[in-house]
Structure formats: C-alpha cells, structure tokens
Amino acid sequence: MNLPGAVKTIWCSWSFEVETVKKVEFEVEEREEYTIIHFELRDVLSPEALRDMEPPQVKGTKGVVLSGRGPVWLYCFLAHHYHPTLFVATYDPRLGGAVIVESYSPNYKVGEILKVELEG
Q: Are the C-beta atoms of residues 105 and 112 closer than 8 Å to each other?
C-alpha cells in the first residue's frame, strides 16, 4: 500500500576494487656472508598483517641480517621465517653491527656482534 508522503526504502549495493596497500616494504642487499633484509613500515601495521606477509626469499647457505624499525612481534615473525638460514642477526646501530640471535654454524655464535655497515 502506498500512502502519500511515505518513505520508500531503496536497497543498493556497489562493489569496489580496492588496491591493497603494501604496509611493509622490503629491500634486499646481498653481501658475501649474509643477506641484509631491510624493512620499512609504510602504514600502521596490525598483527593480522602477518598472515598475508611474504618476506623476500633468500639463500639458506648464507646468514640473514634483519634491519628496520618495527614492532617486536614483526622481528619475531621475520626471525622465525628465516630460521632455516645459516644464521639470523638483528642490526643494532648503537652496537655498530648485528647481534646473532640464532645460528646453525659453529662459526657464528649466538650473542656475537657481526660487524655490519649499512649504507644511507
């Protein structure tokens, strides 16, 4: 029944293609003994972003040095991701190098500071 002055509800729907924003940008630098994985946050990062994150692939025969400013849980995720490599270290500019946090080689000991110079 249509009454004069009655409001009629119209249902509409739209679909949009939304471009996924890359919230973490990775840079890879190959060195003789290790690969530097530098990351930079481009947006606010939530823990749920880890589910779809695809860190760069590296050679497992070398170590990995992680560098970048980010939450502790991102570093934990990346260290776990790269654990099959020869060693994993985290860069600390105050120490002038990277602290080895896990290793599969007697040549690289946990707690050792690996001299690393980053460009820029």
A: no
pLDDT digits (tens, 9 = 90+) for 1-39: 555 555 544 443 443 333 345 789 999 999 999 999 999
Asked whether residue 33 is assigned to any structural domain, the reply reads yes
When divided into structural domains, the chain yields a total of 1
C-alpha torsion angle, residues 100, 97, 114, 35 (rounded to 10): 80
Name residue 73's amino acid. W
Whether pLDDT at 80 is above 60: yes
Per the structure, the complete domain to which residue 72 belongs is given by 24-115
Measured distance CA(114)–CA(119) in Å, rounded? 16
How far is residue 79's CA from residue 56's CA, in Å, rounded to a whole number?
13
Between 70 and 43, the higher pLDDT residue: 70
Tell whether 14 is covered by a domain: no
Would residue 15 count as lying in a domain?
no
| CB-based contact 90:69 (threshold 8 Å) | no
